[in-house]
Amino acid sequence: MSYKTIVRSLRTLSYVGSYKKIRSRPYKFYYAAIVGTGFIAYNQMKNNKAEMKEIMQLKNYMAEPITPLAQLEQNPDDMKTQMELLIMRIQAEFCRALEKEEDQAWEDEKTADDYDFDKDLFLPSPESKFKVDRWTRKEGGGGITCVLQDGRVFEKAGVNISVVSGTLPPAAVQQMRSRGKNLQSSELPFFAAGVSAVIHPRNPMVPTVHFNYRYFEVRDKDGVQWWFGGGTDLTPYYLNEDDAIHFHLTLKDACDAHDPTYYPKFKKWCDDYFTIPHRGERRGIGGIFFDDIDFPSKEKAFEFITSCAESVVPSYIPIVQKHKDDAYGYHERQWQLLRRGRYVEFNLVYDRGTKFGLHTPEARYESILMSLPLNAKWEYMHEPKLNSPEEKLMRVLKEPRDWLNIEKGKRTVG
Fold it and tell me: Where in the sequence is the signal peptide annotated (predicted)?
């Protein structure tokens, strides 16, 4: 207890008249009163600081938490609480980082009156901000969907969190069983919380990024089963090897802080998962992806998820800043739209998260389908020219690359 705290406690005693009442009592009682009152004041100060910190944090979120604040405060150690607060923070931090790029892109730019353009043509708005849509579902929980559209840097950016509970329908239970989950009933109580984002930039030289981090609890007759899942992956339209290395190295650092075997294992998982089988190609240049993480403990798994989620901004925003003003033309734009068509094909045909969302009762389809781009195209039997930048990208999409030469290093050491 600090000297200033004791002084404030003594002043408090004198203000209420207590000091006069104990003045004639034994010194031991006197000192005990000071120390006791100081201890109470100190604890009150700590509580006030904690409450103020929570209030300040709430102001930084995109909206109020889905779970009532009183319930969150009563269960601070519950993993459901910890996960909800994490995804609220990650959503807000990522949205602010994207909005900052939009704000900076419009500094010293012309106003609408300065442009010589046909009124029917599109002109991006310098007021591009996230539309915040907080929604609830009748069966339990809800979410916060944040979408920015028609920006100068980002054509469409969606950052969504969901905190939902209820009963899993048979289709969702069957999907989990197909992954090896030993679930005893056909309909099970569940809790799920996660953050997901897909960013479609305007400039074809800036890649699309996707990330998703989630926590599940399912209760059956044997008790509660829990697990984490997620990942971050990059989908460029034009290949830049330095960007690919930066992106993968940032994710590797996040993984290595917990287990050096995570990155190579989850990198391969990502390459295998984000595959479009009917095209014989990957959606992008990968990253990390994992599911069913229920080891080494719930706390350690949560720490790992936190590191991965916090790596999104440093892995992606520097790439945006590097290329958002790069020159491009009609040809590059058309290629970008074709690749976005592939993105749509994967998400609607193969993505497990999309399927789970569509199978969930009272599903909110606007939020589930926020990952789709604002514009895309499909061209019959399109083939890029040999040795073109577009064909260079396709070679990597058909044969994933070890960007950090990890396998080569293993062979050298061996």
Answer: none
Which pTM does this prediction carry? 0.81
Determine whether 210 is an active site residue: yes
Cis check: omega of the bond before 314, within 30 degrees of 0: no
Respond yes or no on whether the N-terminal peptide bond of residue 65 is cis (omega within 30° of 0).
Answer: no
Q: Which two tokens stand for residue 63?
A: 């909206």
CB atoms within 10 A of CB 411: 9
CB 124 within 8 A of CB 152: yes
Q: Which residues of 189-220 are buried (b: 16+ CB within 10 A; e: fewer)?
A: ebbbbbbbbbbbbbbbbbbbbbbbbbbbbbbb
Residue count of the chain, please give it: 414
Select which of 200, 210, 246, 323 is catalytic: 210
Q: Report the amino acid identity of residue 356.
A: F
Give mean pLDDT, residues 9-35: 38
- Dump pLDDT digits (tens) for 143-152: 999 999 999 9
Among residues 165, 231, 150, 237, the alpha carbon closest in space to that of 197 is found at 231
Neighbours of 5 (CB within 10 A): 15
Residue 200: strand pairing partners: 156
Q: Using only C-alpha atoms, what is the Rg of the chain?
A: 26
